[in-house]
Amino acid sequence: MHHQRSSNRYKAVKRLSKNKLAVAGLLIVIFLVILAAFAPFIAPYDPLKQDYNALFSPPSAAHWLGTDMYGRDVLSRIIYGTKYALLIGVAVVSIEVIIGVSLGLIAGYYGGITETVIMRITDMMLAIPAMVLALAIAGFLGGGLRNVIIAVGAVGWRDYARLVRGEVLSVKREPYVEAARASGGSNLHIIMRHILPNITVSLIVYISLSIPSAILWAAALSFLGLGAQPPTPEWGSMLADGRSFLRRAWWIGTFPGLAIMFTVLGFNFLGDGLNDVLDPKTQRASR
Predict the structure, then answer these.
(1) How many domains does the chain have?
(2) Which residues does 64 contact at the CB level (< 8 Å), separation at least 6?
(3) SS3 of 16, please?
(4) Domain that holds residue 172
(5) CATH for 66
(6) How far is CA 154 from CA 37, 52, 138, 169, 222, in A?
(7) What is the pLDDT of residues 84-113, one digit of tens each?
(8) Contact between 257 and 239 (Cβ < 8 Å)
(9) Which member of 122, 158, 200, 227 has the lowest number of beta carbons within 10 Å of its beta carbon?
(10) Which among 101, 18, 13 is positioned nearest to 278, based on CA atoms?
(11) 3-state secondary structure of 138
(12) For position 287, what pLDDT does the model report?
């Protein structure tokens, strides 16, 4: 069994390495993690330091990506912003997974009135446009990084609940689940030992595609003034700072926007690659 699992992992890694976009995405994600972890050592300036002798400086040898209206180095703020982007992505997805996966497992496994109640609540939540719901929650909670994480996480769990519920309905009919139930296994044991591990592949792929979505949502709320507050070097708030100076100092808003695009593309490439590698349907089609 151990040898078979090792062999499957090796084959998965080999397939992933042949997917050029997936490799590119993985390299981008690794690069972003390094930037976030070592920002104090990589950034050439303090991201909050104001230099009134260098207001609106264009890209130059001293400031590679220029400075903003307060003389703060744009490159340093983008580098530090990587930490906030990844923090937001991971924190939001963690909230979505905890709520959505829990409700999906319960609904799919127990069925009956429990499933009906959970899925009707989910359907009611899905009936509200995601942006409207996120704006309402963020507006109610007020600005701030923590509140924007809660607002975005409170929206995304709905899709996880539906995904997991569908996967559980399929898996719980498998013979090994019936055998575990017949042998007297508790519901919690069956869910944790036999059902959850067998839907992990779908979850991994969906999580990898949810992180860039969470980063985009958080940046959008920050752009609207409902997310991270100044002077936090968060990409969405940096975009908001630069929108008033597009003609005078295009670099203030352009480079944070490119950072968001670069990050989203990296995670999307990686997610698509994982889907190609881990999805059994894709594997059968490639044979």
Answers:
(1) 1
(2) 44, 75
(3) helix
(4) 2-286
(5) 1.10.3720.10
(6) 27, 41, 10, 24, 16
(7) 999 999 999 999 999 999 999 999 999 999
(8) yes
(9) 200
(10) 13
(11) helix
(12) 41
